[in-house]
Amino acid sequence: MNFIKNLINYSLIIIFSLFxxxxxxxxxxxxKDEAAxxxxxxxxxxxxxxxxxxxxxxxxxxGLHVKDxxxxxxxDNGLLLGHPTLEGGNVLNFEDSEGKAVGKSMIAxxxxxxxxxxxxxxxxxxxxxxxxxxxxxxxxxxxxxICAVGFYSE
Length: 154
Fold this sequence. Notes:
about 150 residues; alpha+beta; Beta-Lactamase
């Protein structure tokens, strides 16, 4: 009887721990829904004033850096614009940890009026953790740019 009671108690502790861990992850890292909403805001801003939008993407002003989420844009030749840390860099030769040509993939799937996804494996830059995680970039075309917001999908 004690064995069953202990087993139930341990099971509850494990379930509670998993719930807390998942909740902490949700509070620290953006979700797909949050990334999609941020991309929608970014699209609207680019349509109104492209230069101002790119400036806001770089600085994060106006609530455009949410948790670990941020919008950024690039040109068809891979030049990063409106990126908080890599503005002016080029993504054409960017490969993830598994050798996937992420920049080229993003350019290839970007379509006006559609949001497509590009998955990559990468370490989280905001932590000291070197473990690789799946990150998904939500990608679209707006004006003459390719814009995206990425989120970790664990």
